[in-house]
Amino acid sequence: MTGSQGLLGVKDIARLAGVSSATVSRVLQGTTRVSDETRTRVEKVMAEVGYVPNALASAMRTRRTGIIGVVTGQLTNPWYPLMLETLAKNLAEQDLSMNVWVSDGEVTDESAIKAIRSRAIDGVIFLTALRNSKALPAALEYGLPLVLVNRKIDDVESDHVVSDNIAGGRSVAQYFLKHGRTNVAVIGGWATVSTGRDRRQGFISEFAKAGIELDKVQAPTTEFSYSAGLHFGRAILRDKKPQAVFCTTDVIAFGVMDAAKELGLRVPEDLWVVGYDDIPMASWGALSLTSVRQSMDMMATTALKLLMSRIANPNSPFVQQVFDIELIVRNSTGFAPIS
């Protein structure tokens, strides 16, 4: 009977399985009001005839599309593909699909806004969000379930999942101070982006407590990119000759390490470099970058759990999940111990 699925509907499956149409519908919906024996019989019949439920009909019946939207930052930053990979795996395990829109931080693809307004997705996860993002206000206006991941916006009420970025910046400052690195710099983090802003704040405030103030040259704000690390790395290493540089993402740190190489500086002998995120590339032998580790798998998994809970219970209290960070020491700081 395989291959005849196009001619069969719920009533046909019910007849072949010897159950009611309502029972078949309950099996398709995944409800618990069906015995294991009956569910197995119905699923066996569907498998034998190659039956695939009509997605449009199912969406109309359940008011669910089974599709989750994800707004991500530029995929040239390895952090975003890693998060997408974990989300895709978790969604597949729940028989859900994912639509992805890449935002440049200023203008989000208009198709994302159309999907939000037409309810073509059940909810949306923002891996990147700014106040001037167009998709976020649209999701809020239309009451679409959403979760902010990695970045948060203080006056937006929503579920969000972040790491303790202030503590991350503070831990790097304490590490530098412990090893006598007092001539330092920090690169990256616009004031409008919570991740970079909080990492900088934790770092700068810890040095201020030690009586060390960083000037603007030592603490430039910039985008999270390799080219920014290379550009500001060249300028700072020439002008300030710091003993150590904290970069608010790993990709910035890679740029600083290349700038140091151009200028004839050795890492870690002449310069320490620390990044943030601990993406897999940071552990590569040629780079061996000391970095602040975020629990990317846990953040992605938790974000999806929160979103599915929000879809099921739209009026429940908002949840703010903050994950601890860990400083992972490698050769870019000479494997100097944390304590």
UniProtKB/TrEMBL annotation:
SUPFAM superfamilies: lambda repressor-like DNA-binding domains, Periplasmic binding protein-like I. It comes from the Bacteria. Residues 8-62 form the HTH lacI-type domain. The keyword Amino-acid biosynthesis does not apply. InterPro entries: HTH_LacI, LacI/GalR-like_sensor, Lambda_DNA-bd_dom_sf, Peripla_BP_I. Keywords: DNA-binding, Transcription, Transcription regulation. CDD domains: HTH_LacI, PBP1_LacI-like. Pfam families: LacI (PF00356), Peripla_BP_3 (PF13377). GO terms for molecular function: DNA-binding transcription factor activity; transcription cis-regulatory region binding. This is LacI family transcriptional regulator. It comes from Neomicrococcus aestuarii.
